[in-house]
Automatic annotation (TrEMBL):
GO cellular component, one term: cytoplasm
Superkingdom of source: Bacteria
Identification of the protein by name: N-acetyltransferase domain-containing protein
GO molecular function annotation: protein N-terminal-serine acetyltransferase activity; protein-N-terminal-alanine acetyltransferase activity
Domain (N-acetyltransferase): residue spans on this chain: 21-167
InterPro entries named among the record's database cross-references: Acyl_CoA_acyltransferase (IPR016181), GNAT_dom (IPR000182), Ribosomal_N-acetyltransferase (IPR051908)
Pfam families: Acetyltransf_3
Region annotated Disordered, chain positions: 187-207
Length: 207
């Protein structure tokens, strides 16, 4: 696989030393609620993910899984791009450990992967697909933050494996390239930093 980088993150393959981090992350109730993973999620589940699932996807060309990490630390989460049956199309999914949330890591990593997936010199997909279960507003906001568009037209929903309705959104090339996707992340991070600075200033002025 091709390793990717952002300002703060290294995106590479999950590895043996990540097994414990995968296991601990997948004990989170929100991850198990919204993502089709084994439940309960055991150490054996994490071992299978790292040792079998990820290498099989890469070897077969069916899907690629990137681990999000800071430098050489254990993974914080993952992003997967899975080739669809429709030519030129792929589906995107992800999860992030609970203790890593609130820092913009997933948005930053996802923007980089999405840009690479749509880049003619990268994975060269022309369309990316995103599904989220009804009620998972955080997933929808994340997808929309990197350019996915959802609508309420017929065909924009489907029954999930356990019969819960899922919403479907799309992101298409060539309008979205590396610079456009990552510019959205920089703008969002700048706005977030400004809000924090203002909040800190307001607090310092009270007494």
């Amino acid at each position: 696989m091709i390793a990717l980088r952002t300002e703060r993150l290294c995106l590479d393959a999950p590895r043996e030393s990540d097994i414990d981090a995968v296991y601990r992350a997948c004990q989170d109730a929100d991850i198990l609620r919204w993502i089709p993973l084994p439940n309960p999620y055991t150490v054996e589940s994490a071992e299978f993910f790292v040792r079998s699932y990820v290498p099989h996807g890469e070897a077969s060309g069916a899907f690629t899984v990137w681990a999000l990490r800071i430098d050489d630390a254990p993974l914080l989460g993952v992003v997967e791009v899975r080739r669809d049956r429709t030519a030129g199309s792929a589906s995107v999914g992800c999860w992030l450990a609970a203790d890593a949330r609130g820092n913009g890591y997933m948005r930053e990593g996802l923007a980089r992967v999405v840009a690479f997936a749509l880049d003619a010199n990268g994975m060269a997909f022309t369309r990316l697909r995103w599904e989220h279960l009804d009620g998972n507003s955080a997933s929808r906001r994340l997808a929309e933050s990197v350019g996915f568009v959802f609508d309420e037209e017929p065909g924009s929903t489907r029954a999930f494996g356990d019969a819960r309705p899922a919403r479907i959104g799309y992101l298409r090339a060539p309008a979205n390239d590396v610079r456009a996707a990552e510019a959205r992340v920089r703008a969002a991070d700048s706005a977030r930093a400004t809000r924090r600075t203002r909040s800190a200033g307001d607090g310092a002025g009270r007494g």
